[in-house]
Design goal:
The complex is a heterodimer. By secondary structure, chain A is of the alpha/beta class. Chain A has helices at 14-26, 39-52, 72-79, 84-87, 101-109, 123-134; strands at residues 4-10, 30-36, 60-64, 91-96, 113-118. Classes of the chains: A alpha/beta, B alpha+beta.
Chain lengths: 135, 399
Amino acid sequence: MGKINYLVVIDDNPGNNLICRILVQNEAFANEFKDFLSPMEAIDYLKKIAVEHKEAFPEVIFLDINMPEMDGWEFLNSFRELPSEVTKNCKIFMVSSSIYSKDLERAATHDLITGFITKPLTTERLAEVKEQLSS
Amino acid sequence: MMDIIIENVGAQNGYLLLNRKQKWTIEAVGNIQTFNQQKQDSFILESTPLEKQREIFGQQLLSEAVIQFVGRTKKELVLIDAATDERFITDGFIRKKKIKSLLCFPVINKGQISGLLYLENNLVAGAFTSKRLKVLRLLSAQIAISIENAMLYQRLEKQNKELKLLNKELVTQNQDLQQFAYITSHNLREPASTILGLAKLFDKQNLANPINTQIIDNLEKSALNMNTIIKDLNYILSIKKDAEDARELIDLKVLTISIKQSLAKQMQASGAIIEYDFSKVAPIYSLKGYWHSIFYNLISNAIKYRSEKRKPIINIQSETVKDLIIISFSDNGIGIDLEKYRENLFGMYKRFHVHKEGKGLGLHLVKTQIEAMGGTIQVESQVEIGTTFKLLFSKTILS
């Protein structure tokens, strides 16, 4: 699988976002990378480009579950409101530092979620994501 | 048992008294009328101390002088015509009621006096014949055993009740601990995983790689984060332990003034006003440290979550309702959407308003400290109108 065009990471932990940024660069995972510490800012941004710049909508999103403002699930509810023609090609991966089985189940049965990543992101885990994307 | 005794001994009224903690208490009452009429059982009362018989029953039922006499001598007392008996001529009760036959029988068990039977017959004098006394003496062993069994059973019931309560407490504590353990591991996992991920990406081949500085900075942040979480958790664990420690007299007015001083900067910046009225509650006897923390957290929260649209006014009141002391903190701030957040309000590390500093530990701490002292906390709130926190304690806890 070739490079994806654009990856967006949404996580209130800057350390985690740095890890993603470095790995994405090292493994040539994506051409463009942007991280958001605030899920609300992320939603506003995605709303904007869904309207003004459809082609620039991210192909992949890594979304953290536990964030103070709104958690990952609430973010997905807001994401659902975006125009589906833009979002249908966007694959979302849920990210979490804890392997809470309820979260895993919920992610597995959620229609907007493509996969689940346990923190910290590593070369191996990124490779698994690449595999899931190409299948 | 009382029925059998009354019928066989020829009494009109009978009382069973037991010796509780050196005092005589009336345990059962029997009445020949109730027995004859409708097969009613003699009734068993809540132990009524002898000296409180007037208070509880509205009238005096038996002669205290007789009870004390037999209690002391441990011998049967038979009065053929009590009102004319020179031994009790000074007892107003016997004289007024013109008691005729009176029998007070000690129930002896293993050399100790375990109970007293007090029997009266006001229709005839000399009702308690030696024949009837013999019957009573025959029954006395039975009576003694019955009393002993009844007391043992009562003690058993009491212990059972206490055990059930203790068990309930243990279950709750266990649930708390489990939740605590979950939250700990959950919250520590995040910085731990970050440290792991970053350490792996540190460029060891090329130490001068600029990315290394960023990595070290973030490593430090995560390590500090972990450290803080562990400190917080230790603090919360210690609260429950310290709850037994030294208590002192606390004047809530003085406490409020001292907190106002601690928060002087925030008060000035926000223009907040604190009104208080503790006139209805005397100084409390409790743990100063906890109260300081509770007041500080609730007041500082009220200032922090004030509304920009109006001058923040914080009102602290104390009142007593029945045997409860209620201290309430009311503000006119931005309020909390309780429908959404009521369950998580006092949880650890839970925050509901963005762009406000704080770890989300304040309310959890307040609740933990209040509950460690045996109190409870309630909250009412309306968004954009204000919030009221009510602290409830039983009077005995704070005195």
